[in-house]
Amino acid sequence: MSPMNLKEALKGKIPEKDERYIYRAFEIIGDIAIIQVPKEIEQHKMLMAETLCALHKNIKVVLRKIDDVSGKYRIGKYETLIGDRTDTIYSENNIRLKADPTRAYFSSKLGTERERITAQVKDGETIVCMFAGIGPFPINVAKVRDVTIKAVEINPEATALFAESLKLNRLKGKIEIFTGDIKDIVPNFTEKFDRIMMPAPKDAPEFLDLALDKVKKGGIINYYSFVPAEDYDDLEETVKKQCADLGRKVEILAKRKCGNIGVCQFRGAIDIKVLD
Ligand SMILES: C[S@@+](CC[C@H](N)C(=O)[O-])C[C@H]1O[C@@H](n2cnc3c(N)ncnc32)[C@H](O)[C@@H]1O
User: Fold this and answer.
1) Is the distance from CB of 113 to CB of 181 less than 8 angstroms?
2) Cβ of residue 137 lying under 6 Å from some atom of ligand 1
3) Any idea what DSSP says for residue 163?
4) Per residue, what are the HEC states of 52-114?
5) For position 259, what pLDDT does the model report?
6) If you measure from the C-alpha of residue 39 to the centroid of ligand 1, how many angstroms do you get, rounded to a whole number?
7) What are the φ/ψ torsions at residue 214 (nearest 5 degrees)?
8) Of the residues 131, 134, 184, which should be mutated to test ligand 1's pocket, given the most ligand atoms within 8 Å of the CB?
9) What stretch of H or E contains 241?
10) Of 210, 271, 275, whose CA–CA distance to 235 is shortest?
11) Are 76 and 50 within 8 A, CB to CB?
């Protein structure tokens, strides 16, 4: 990282009155930088992109995020400022992922959470990963554990990228990719699994019954939920009650904050052990 940030680098190059609109933070995925340019300083967008590339020599593509993630596939809207492609290779925890933010959801911010989940998994586990996206959770786990993972994702563009990433990594475990709706695919799995991963906070509660139905007694559900900040402390009890209402007794093994939407909402990661 350069010691100088974009705001400092633009000092004197844009009118002082416009400086307050510059976002300090931006996301880097591989050699792609994703920046936000408020409409008040739209006229400086190319200068901002060029300045960023000058600061970070490894950046080859600059995308401007013009709309937040939305829709079932959770994809944002982007304008290309620099570069002639939108795909890249992203590395974390010794794995490589083919990513393209314009085609499929991916967040580089959850690398530590993926490392935490991987550390829990034991060789020999059978796993379902719902909402698999381009495969960051399954590939992290299968890289270092001799497991069998069924990964389910509805966006065909995401599973195409996922399939490409399988070729980029030498894995210890096996991954089978299913393209389609979890509600159509998971009920057809005839066996019960040691672990169900559900890395999609927005829709997860709607799919908890299916996860509970497919997990073995004693098995684990890695569950995620967005909650208002004031409800975070009650999240364990809320999840326990949701499971009880669905007829299952559970123990919460761990809870942690991993991300937020503004200051008002937290992404809670909950590890659920299904007792009965
Ligand atoms: C927030 S993204 C998370 C992706 C991935 N787990 C990750 O961490 O990068 C949620 C994903 O769930 C997928 N999805 C949403 N509803 C689904 C459904 N009913 N069946 C299968 N996948 C679904 C979306 O297409 C999207 O890729």
Assistant:
1) no
2) yes
3) H
4) HHHHCCCCCEEEEEEEEEECCCCEEEEEEEECCCCCEEEEECCEEEEECCCCCCCCHHHHHHH
5) 83
6) 30
7) -100, -5
8) 131
9) helix 235-245
10) 271
11) no
Report the length, in residues, of the chain. 276
Give the chain's domain count.
2
* pLDDT at position 30: 97
Residue type, 151: A
The pLDDT value recorded for residue 260 is 82
Nearest atom in ligand 1 to the alpha carbon of residue 199 is 6
Sign of CA pseudo-dihedral 77, 106, 34, 57: negative
pLDDT score recorded for residue 4: 66
For residue 27, the domain's CATH number is: 3.30.300.110
Give me the pLDDT at residue 153, please.
98
Regarding the beta carbon of 181 and ligand 1, being less than 6 Å apart is answered yes
Does 47 share its domain with 117? no
Q: Which residues of the chain have pLDDT under 50?
A: 1-2
Are 178 and 217 in the same domain?
yes
Provide the 8-state DSSP code for 139: H
Range of the domain at 51: 6-86
For 120, list phi and psi in degrees, rounded to 5: -80, -25
